[in-house]
Amino acid sequence: MLSRFFSIFLSATLLQAEPKAEQVTPITAPELHQKITALAPSLVESTIAIFIGGAGSGSGVIISPDGLCISAAHVTSTPGKEVTVLLDDGRELPALTLGVDHGTDGSLLKITAPGPFPYRPYIKKKNYQIGDWVLATGHPGGPIVGRPAPVRLGQISAAGTKNGFADAIVTNATVISGDSGGPLFNLDGEVIGINSNIGMNWQANQHVPLPAIVSKWDDLMESKTFGASDNVIQNDFPYDDPYQKLREQFLRELAKRPTDPLNKRPRALSPNEMQARLDQWEPELEVPQTPSLGIQVDLTHREITTITEILPDSPAAKAGVPHPSIITKVNGETIYSPTNFALALKQADPKKEITLEVNGSQTFTIQPLSIPRRRHFPMPLAGLVGMMINEEASGEIPTQARTVREELLNTAPTLSNSFLEIRRNDEVIVHATVIEETEILTKLSELGDLTKLSELTAHHGEASSSLTLINKDAEHDLALLKIDDLGLTPIVLRLREPRVGSLVFTPGDSSPILGCVTQPVRAAPKSGYEHNETANTPTGWLGVSFTPDGTSLTISTVEVGSPADTAGLLEGDLLIKFGNTEITTHAELSQAITPKAPGEKITLVIRRGEEELTFRPILGVQPTLTSGTFQQRAALSDDSLKSLSARGGELSKRRNDFPTALFHDQIITPSQAGTPLYDIKGRVIGINIARSFRHRTLAIPAKTLDQILWKLQK
Amino acid sequence: MNFSTLTFILCFSTLSTLGTLGADLQSHTQTFTPLIQQQVLMVGRLGLTETRPAVALGEKGPLLAPKITSVDGTETPYILYHRNGTRETLEILAEPKQRPVVLLKRPAGLEVAQTDLADPETIAKSQWFYHPTLSPSPVIGEPAAIVLDSKHPLEKEENNIFAVKIGSLKAGSPILDLQGHLVAITLPSRTQDKGKFSRALLFSRLVEDLEELQKIEPSPKAPPHFPTPQAPPLHPAVGLIINDTKQITYSVGGTIIREDGLILTKASELGPELTFQFQDQEYPAVLLATDSATDLAIVGVTGRKFPVITWSDHTTLKPGTLFHHRSLLSQNAPEMEEMNDTHFGTFNTKLPEHPMTIHHASRITSLGLVPEQLQNDLIISAIRAESPASKTGLRLGDRILKLNDQTISNRPSLLRFLEKKEVAQEVKLTVSRQDETLSFTLPLTSASLTPETTGITLNEPQTCVPSVVRGPFPLTIAHTLSLNSWDCGAPLLDLQNRAYGIHIAAITNTRSLTLPPPVIKDAIKRMMTSIAF
C-alpha cells in the first residue's frame, strides 16, 4: 500500500525523483551558532514590514543602501503604488512599488525617503543546495511594536531554480502569514529567496528563488507587471512538461473552492465539478489532433470494419462514402479490424487528405476535420490526483544536519537525566524538569485537576514515582512538584539571556533537530495586538487612505467615525492643499501631519468633481488595536494564525499570556512542554512552556525561572 | 438472502449456537459479516457531515463512539442515524479527555446487536481483526463495511497497544476480534507511522478509566485462528494500460473482453498515447469507444489472440466474501515493490444509483445564509443566491442578534433553533449593522444538500491514491479492497479468481467500487455500436 499524506502544497508529481545531496563540508554546531548569532542583527535590520492598506501587511528586505527592496508579488500586487514601510529602527517611511512578477511571485519596491538604509546583498545565481542551513525573517502575524522581525532557522529540502513560484526553494524554516515577501538568507547573509507560501505541514515552507527574480530584473525595475493577473504561472520550464499548465489551473481552482459552511473543511472535488473544470480547460491546451471523418463503425464484427452510418454534413458524407460498407484500405494500408483502422487513422496527418477504400474497389479522397484526439482529458486523471491531494515534503534530514545531530546526541545521554515524563494511564501528558533531586517543575495547565494528582506518575526510564504539589505559579503556568529520589540530576540554569539566533534544542523526539532563538526575550501577550500600543507621543490621526494617481492624492477609504468622516470628507475626494501649502504626494502629507497632535484642527482643501471644498477636521488619536474597528481584525489575525498553524500539528492549549518568554522556533508537541531548553553547550536556558504557533514555541527564560523558583521554594 | 432483515434476537441466538464454522477464513467472514453489521450504528453530530461507526456495549451498556470534532471546535449534540432515515439525539455519558472516544447513553428500545468485550487473554494470540467503517459520504441504510485486518508487528513494544496492517485509520474506531467482540480502539495516526500501520489501544485499558464500562463482563470465548488464505496467481485476462512510461502511476488496468484484442478499462484514466502491457510484451493501443454513464472505455490492440475474461454472477456474492488484488505496477518500477503484496478485502454491499445520504435525513431548515463565528458573534459571511434571504435587505457582515425572540450568538444555538422549524415557516431575523439594529422577516427554505461527492476530504491522510472520477455510477458493488487509482480497470476477483465486475473507483484505504457484470454488459453494448471516426 502506498503511504502518502496530503497537504496543500504546490508541488507537482506524485513520485518525485530522489534529489541527490551533493557533498558538502558539514558544519559543526558551534560554527553554526557563531555564524547565526553574528549575522542575526544585520539580517533583522534589513527586514522591513510593508503596509498594503487596511490591516494587511507583508514583509520585504532592503538590498541597496538607497532603499531598493525585494518583496513578494502577492504583497505589493500593483506597480506604482505608494505604500508605507516599517524599518527595524521604528521609522515608517513611504515607498513606491516597482515591477510585479506574478509568475515568480517576486516584486521590487523603492523607499522614497532619502537613505542610507541598512541592507543585505543578494545572490544572482543559484549557489545553494539541499541541506544548506538558511535563516528566514519577516513579520509573522503583522508587525508588532517593540518586536524585531523574528529569525527562523531551517534547512533546504528542495533547491528551486529560476522558475520561481513553480519551482521554489523549500525549507523547514517555519514562516506564516505576514512573513510573505520577507527574505531567506544563507549563512553568508545573502538573500537567496523570498518567502512566498506554505503547506499545511510545518516543514513545507516555500520561498521564491532569487535567480528567478534576478532573471526578470530589468522588467521589474521598469515597473512592469506580468505573469498574468490571477497568478497563472508562465510557461518557462526547463523541461518539457505538457501537463504543467493543467496542473496549475487545477491548483487555482482548488484555491477558489468554497468550503462546506457547516464543516469548514475543504473537500475533494466531486466528479461533476471535476468534469466541468476539465471540460473548460481543454480548449486551451494543446491536445494531439486526430482526423475525423464522420463515419460510424460497428465493433461487433471482428475481422472487418463495417461502416454503419455516415454522419450528415461530415467529410465522409461530402466525399460520398456509401453505407453500409466495409473499409478495406486507408492510405494504402490494408484494414481488417476496427482497432487496426483506428490505429491507422491515428497515425494519419489530420491536415492532409485521406484515401479511403471501401468494399475492395471504391476509393474516396476525404479532407478530414482535425479534432482533438478523442479522449476527454489530455492527460490521465490519475496524474491530477497528485495535485488534488498533494504529498508533503520529505522529512529526510540532509547530510549537513547529521554532523550536528551526532554532536548533540553525544551530549544528550547526560542531559536526559535532568527531565522526566509525567503520565496518566501510560500516556505521556507532559514533561518536567528536575530542579532538585526530589523537586520537578512542569507546565501547570497540562496537569489537569490538581486534586487528582494521585492519578499521575512521574517516569524516568524504568523508575517511577508519585507526585505531590509543592507550589504553583498560574501566571507563568508552572507547577513545582515533589517526587521520590530517583537519582536524577538537577539542572543548572544559565541566567544570561541568549542572543538572537542562538541555537537551541529540546531533548526528545523533535524534528527538526535544532531551532534558534528568534527574538529578544519579551512578554507573550494574550493577543498579538495587545502589544500594538500607540507610540509615546501619538501623531494626530485623520482616518483616510489614498490611491496613488501619479502625482495626486485621491482618497480611497474614509474610516468610519474618523475625524475625516465627521468633517465630511468622502471617497474620491482629491486632496490638493494642506493649510496653505499645495501637496501632491503621500510623503508631503505625512510630513505635514506628523508634527500635529491629536486635538489640533487642520485645514484641507479638496477637489470634488468640479468644486474645490475646504474642510477643517480635528485630528484624533490613532485607535489602538484593542479598541474600535481594529479589534475585529486583531482577533481575526490571531484566529487565522492559530488555524493556519493548527492544521500542521498540535498547539498547546495555554499558549500565550506569559509575562516573559523566550521565543524560539524548535517544533515541539504540546506534551513536550516542561522539557528543559538547551543551548548547544548543554546549558539550560529555559523550560519549554508552550507550542504557540507554526513559527513559534515559548519557553520561560532561565532568569525568570530563577526568580519564580525563589518564590515557589520558600 | 436479505441480511437487513435479521433481527436482534435472531443474531444473538445464532452466535451462541454456532458449532462448526467451516474450516477457513472465508467461511468465517461470510458467516460473521452480516452478524457484525447488525452491531454497528451510524453516529454523527448535529451540523457536521461526518459520521462514524458506534457499537452498543453489553446487554445494557452505553454506546461507544469515536469522538467527532469540527475544525472550529463547536460542540453540538451527537445524533444517531436510524436505518429508516430518522435521527435521534444522544446524551453524552462520559468524554474522557485523552481518549478519542465518547460514551453515549443507549436510547431505550434501541434495536441493535450487542457488542461484547473480548477476553484480554485471547487478544495476544489473535491474528485477524475486523473493524467496521462507514462510507465517507454517509448513506442511510448502507450496512457498515466490515474490514478484515491482521496484526502488524510493532517496532517498539508498548503496553496495551498493538497495531493492525491497514494504516491511517481514523481514531476512535472499534476493533473487533473474529467473533465480533470489542478488542481495542484505534488511536490517532502519527506522522512517524507513515501510514504503514495503525495503532490501537486495548479496550481493557479504557475500562480502567471509565466507571460505566466496569460493569460489563468480558466474553470468555476465544476467537478461532486461521492461516492466511492462499492468493491465486495473476489472472490471465488482465493487463496494464500505460499512459506515460516515465510516470508509471499514470497507468490503469485493462480487462480483456474479446480475444482479438478489445480491452475494457476506466475511461477517465486514459491519456492520448496508450500502450498495453501484457505478459511482458507491449502492444500499441488505441481508444475505440467510451461510455460516460459508467466511465468505461474500450481500447483496441492487435497482434495476437488474447485470453478473455468470463464474468460470474455478482448476485451470489455474500457479504464477507474475500477478494484479493495484485498490483500490476511492480514489474515496471522497483519503487512499487512494496505494493506487490496481495491483499484481501471483503464484499460489503451493492449500492443503488442514488443512495440516500444523511443530508436527506437531516431535514434541517435553512435561512439561506452562511454564518461565521467570530468570537462571540455570528456574522453573515455569505447569502445564498436566489434564496429568500437574498431578497431581503440583509448584507454580508451583518451580525445576527435574534431569531424571532431568541438570542442567537453561536452556531449550535442557531442549528437548534432551525431544527425545530419547518420549511416555509416565517421567522424574524434581527441583525446589527454598524450601530443599527434591523429586522427582516423571511421564510425558511430547505437546506441545500451537499452535492454528490464521495466525501473524502483533503485534511485526512490517505494511504491510497483515490481515483479522480469517483461517481456517480449506476449500480456498483462496494468492497474493502484498498485500491489505488491505477488499479481500476482490473477485475474484482475472489479467491478462486472468479471475476465479479470491473474496478471503477478507488475511494479510500477501506473502500472501493466495482461495476457488476450486467452494468458492464450494457455499457459494452452501447459502446460497440456507437463509435464514430
What is shown here, in short?
The complex is a heterodimer of chains A (714) and B (533). Chain A has 714 residues and is α+β, with helices and mostly antiparallel strands.
Instruction: State the total count of DSSP E strands of chain B.
Output: 34
- The Rg value of chain A, from CA coordinates, equals 32 Å
Globally, the shape of chain A reads extended
Question: How many angstroms separate the termini of chain B?
Answer: 47 Å
**CATH topology heading of the largest domain in chain B:** Thrombin, subunit H
Number of helices of chain A: 14
SSE topology sketch:
The complex is a heterodimer of chains A (714) and B (533).
Chain A: E1 6-7, H1 29-45, E2 47-51, E3 57-62, E4 68-71, H2 73-76, E5 82-86, E6 92-101, E7 106-111, E8 133-136, E9 152-158, E10 169-171, E11 183-185, E12 191-198, E13 205-209, H3 210-214, H4 217-221, E14 225-226, H5 244-256, H6 271-281, E15 289-292, E16 295-298, E17 305-310, H7 315-319, E18 325-330, E19 333-334, H8 338-347, E20 354-358, E21 362-366, E22 369-372, H9 382-388, E23 390-391, H10 399-415, E24 419-424, E25 427-436, E26 439-443, E27 456-460, E28 463-466, E29 468-473, E30 478-482, E31 503-505, E32 515-516, E33 522-524, E34 540-541, E35 544-549, E36 552-558, H11 563-567, E37 574-578, E38 581-582, H12 586-593, E39 604-608, E40 611-615, E41 620-621, H13 630-646, E42 658-664, E43 676-679, E44 684-693, E45 696-701, H14 702-712
Chain B: H1 8-16, H2 25-37, E1 40-45, E2 51-56, E3 63-66, E4 78-81, E5 87-90, E6 92-94, E7 101-104, H3 120-123, E8 128-133, E9 145-152, E10 161-164, E11 174-176, E12 182-186, E13 198-202, H4 203-209, H5 211-214, E14 238-242, E15 251-258, E16 262-266, E17 274-278, E18 281-291, E19 296-301, E20 322-325, E21 343-351, H6 358-362, E22 365-366, E23 369-374, E24 377-383, H7 388-391, E25 399-403, E26 406-407, H8 411-419, E27 426-433, E28 436-443, E29 445-446, E30 476-479, E31 491-494, E32 499-508, E33 511-515, H9 517-529, E34 531-532
Antiparallel strand pairs in B: 1-2, 1-4, 2-3, 3-7, 4-5, 6-7, 8-9, 9-10, 10-13, 11-12, 12-13, 14-15, 14-17, 15-16, 16-19, 17-18, 18-19, 20-21, 20-31, 21-30, 22-29, 23-24, 24-25, 25-26, 25-27, 27-28, 30-33, 31-32, 32-33
